[in-house]
Amino acid sequence: MRVAMRTSLRMMLMEARDGVPGGLGEALCSLLAAGVYANTLGADFCYDDSRAITSNQDLRPDVPWTRVFYDDFWGTPLSHSGSHKSFRPLCTLSFRLNFALGGLEPWGYHLANVLLHAACTAVYTRLTCTLLPPLPWGILAGLLFAVHPVHTEAVAGVVGRADVGAGLFFLLSLLAYARYCRARDAQPDGEHHHHHNDHHNHHQHHQHQQQHHNNQRHHRTNGVPLPPTGCRDRSPVTEAGTQDGAVPCRERHTNGNAHGSHGNHAGGGLVGGGGGGGGGGGSLRRRRRWWRWAWLGCSVLCAVSSMLWKEQGVTVLAVCAVYDVLVHSRLALGELLPLLYKRGYGAQREGLLALTLGSVLLLGLRLRWMCGGPPSFSGSDNPAADSPDTLTRALTFHYLPAANVALLLCPATLSFDWSMDAVPLVRSLRDPRNVATGLLYLGLAAFLWCILRGLRHRKRAHRDGQPLLHKSKTNGASCSEHGGGSANGGAPPPPSPPPPPPPPPSPPPLTTAAVKNGGRKSNGAAGPEGRRAPRPRSERTLNAAIASLAMLVLPFVPATNLFFYVGFVMAERVLYIPSMGYCLLVAAGARALANAGGAASSSSSSSSAAGAGGAPSPGCGRRRRRLRRVLLGAVTGGLLAVHAARTVHRNRDWASEEALYRAGIATNPAKAWGNLGNVLKSQGKVAEAEHAYRNALHHRGNMADMLYNLGLLLQEENRLNEALYYYKLAIGARPTLASAYLNTGIVLVSQGKASEAQIVFRACADIPDERLKDPQAHMTSVASCLYNLGKVLHEQDLHQEAIEVFNEALKKMPRQFGPQSLYNMMGEAHTRLGRLAEAERWYQESLLSKPDHVPAHLTYAKLLSATNRKVEAERLFLKAIDLDPAKANTYMHYAQFLVEQSRFLEAAGVAEKASQQDSTDFETVFSTAHMCRQAGLNHAAEKYYRQAAQLRPNHSTALMNLGAILHLNGLLEEAENHYLRALRLKPDDSITHSNLQKLRKIMEKQGRPGVVHGGHK
């Protein structure tokens, strides 16, 4: 009874190790992935999000959705020389969907990112649970991927969705290709199952297999397991053979077809017979062939989708090739060359040919879609690429992979941007960072050597008809004969029964060339009673190591500057896909450590006990293994906890741009201080913003953007001379910075230097937009320069020249440029030339482009008034006031219209509303006083004239009018004083002289002495 209970418990443990029922592992890892990023749902748009989302016109419903296939990720046409060439239409379409559902509300964008990461984690866990035993190693890899802090940029930053989406389809493509491999090798016909023509070897092997046919339920295949009809197929990607400690399904063979085909080796794990046995055989073959091509097509389609999320995704085709050759087909290195031409490798060639053709086609189309060559980047984006020294470039580019590996190993220091001097150039061989470079490549070489040794060991084992050695030097793990309880860290199996008499002599070794596709290579020698040794742990670890290295290295190759220069130094979101290989490698290494020395200890203790004549005592070995696994569990648990805490904390940095940039000051001070200055300025913290800009320039003084931003801040503070100084420095640092030219011209106009401003505006208009990082922003500034140049000419009464400049602006303005002001100025220029019909057309165009454009309402209303359409004019004036009731200018235009209609009282009332809105504007206050005087409201007029004189104490006209209204109101002495002040400012003003003479005559009649001043009495 006790034996039965122990056996039942051991079987339950074995089944648990074979898999987690109902996708529980995937669900657990997915929920954890969503949980650690839940605090990003309230975050704002940060950093690159503004350009890719908030200012990207391709997201707007008025732009055709097909534009995403002609513009890059940032909204620049791919055909433009300054395009980033980042073709990611599926990601942009997902942003467009977000915009359609919630506009620019960040919450929906962040929710989509979190859900995508959770889905990616679930699929990744599915993959790792088929390459490693699910409990705990496969799930450990999934948990580590879910919480790794290096993913925060990809998940917390909305732009990182491109990497997450590419990662999801990367995994789906790999899983689909694994299913294709299984369906391909399950073909019952001889199309892909050629046998070696050594008939003698095949005959002996066939007899050997017939001898043990009754025990096929213990048989394991060399490739991916092919469960027979009725067996549950859990894993789309799986090791050859069953999981460690798993009980294999019972194979179903018909008596006549179990070995009837030369291509169907009894150890191949094929389903069904070779070619006969019933009328349904042809239909079964057709169905299997259909599924085979369906899975292959699905894999390529997912690879295309991954590439359309982000270019990095196309590398999945190379990973699939590595999986097919080294993991699924388990070929040795010596078979790679025969794979190209020998007949026995038809199945592998089919898959590899499809992968090769798909890669060539996708890369060709991608290059064709780049429209004119690779992108160009500024020197600050990738300083090493811009370095003229070959040694510096070589040392830096070789060091950068080591820096990226350091981010995976210890993500304590993270940054939103690693450009500029965040990673200083490695300029000499004496730089201590070269040690990290050497360690990386030595470690990689050692890892490759271990894999190559494992491949040679596997080939030798297959050639000799034996499983891999029980004590493998590949990972240090020992393998028991039955992959039972000890395979995954459980209790060892019960003592085996005494071995039966030795079997007949074994047939000659079955070489790897003997059976390639249909008849799979056997996994081990036939044991007692025809049982085959289960797959040893070392081989499973070997396959996991191969897959992890492929997923770690191959997706990272495009970022290494090996084939072309990239526009960044390091980018954490680029590590999203390579981190899949890293997490799998950590889990495989943890499994190797957990199993290291277990069987060796058991074997040594058994030998000692046997030599002493006693029974083996495994207690000491079990205690050591248990202690080692407890320690390993504590370490991995602590690693997961630390990573999760770091991720949650880092997410807080991505909650707002201010927090993000403050966190980045330590790693990239120049970029972080500059961007922080922009944020502080938008918050109205001008002094702090200026301090931030100056700090940025202290760290890197030639940043044109920072020089321009500081100049803009100083201009807004009316420190015009300082602003001009920094604008000139910005232009010197980057002669193509059109916005600096624009604001320089505006400052010069405000200083009354119109001729200098015209030169600057014209210079800006002639700057080409080739190879600029943001050509649309550049052309916006160019169009604005032409608009301002036209205004200057218009104010100089050069209306025809102004119209020509406005027409040039219309030709150069980008599609996101608001043309309403330009149209309105065109209308004003035509009005001045007397072309009223043409002017009206442009006013209407302005209102069509922006129906709430107040200046167009006012100018169009004036035109209607001039053409005696008073009712329509008044309607437009009133609508302008409704659109902008806080703007004094709208009231004043309407008041002037009322004055023209001799409606003086109404005009005075409207003008007083204007002065209430803007009591600091001299023109508004002065005009209000004048209208009140026209309406006979002399005391109100006096109030506003006094206010105007206070605003401009040295304005002679204001003083003269104040004297006149005081004269009318009987305040003669005060009126005389203001007349005299006006004459001191403008001695030859005849009106003031006339008014003063009239005033003194009145004063003489009243017996009041006049004031003697400047010869006037």
Automatic annotation (TrEMBL):
Residues 255-264, 597-610 have a biased composition (Low complexity). Residues 193-221 have a biased composition (Basic residues). InterPro entries: TMTC_DUF1736, TMTC_O-mannosyltransferase, TPR-like_helical_dom_sf, TPR_rpt. Residues 529-538 have a biased composition (Basic and acidic residues). GO terms for molecular function: dolichyl-phosphate-mannose-protein mannosyltransferase activity. It holds the Pfam family TPR_10. The keyword Cell cycle does not apply. This is dolichyl-phosphate-mannose--protein mannosyltransferase. It comes from Petromyzon marinus. The lineage of its organism: Eukaryota, Metazoa, Chordata, Craniata, Vertebrata. The gene is TMTC2.
